[in-house]
Design goal:
71% of the residues lie in helices and 5% in strands. With 233 residues, the protein is mostly helical.
Length: 233
Amino acid sequence: MMEYKLEVGVLRKTLLWIIIVLLLLNIAVLYSKLFLGHGRLFGLVWLFNFNEEKNIPALFATFLILINSLLFYLLYKEGVAQPKNARWRILSYVFVFLALDELLSFHEELIVPLREFFDASGLLYFTWVIPYVIIVAALSIYMIPLFIKMDKKYLAMYLVSGMLFISGAVIVELFEGRHFERFGDDVWFYVYVTFEELLEITGMTLCMFTSIHYLHTKCESIGFFSIKVVRRI
């Protein structure tokens, strides 16, 4: 059996630097767009803008979500909550959908028809949040038996990561939509967008490390290799 050594400290620093670099590049291209009048800048504005689709920040966020999906599936496969709890597998599938949505923005296709149906404005101007909040609430209730059996330390970390992600994806999005309705895509709109994406990425990163440590604690092996978490500064 192969032993895979995961240096958590190195991984944490690497991801932190990637997030910092992406944030700085996002700020730079937005400054170019909003203050210098260079809306394209040889394609760089699109490439690093947090508000665009299928660019580098979107691919990075999609990668994080897919890694979380894989880790949830491993938690199911290894039977961390004996016997195997299918709720881990459901979470894995949900995160695959979230990854695709992050990359392709399916939810944005719902905005106009739902806005017309509900005659929505203000905080609900980006009306996709209505069905997604209902789905998240239903999923949370469905996950209660899994949460009850989980170690309190890991439960707390999962809850914090979930709150960070939802704070960005839903709560900040509510105020972002209201601002966009009133003022359009001005400087403050992009401040909202940047804060939203940072919360989402932070939530996904914390969730990933929580699952890694949970697997390390509960499982001697994952599939055909063993995992050994190494904390190196």
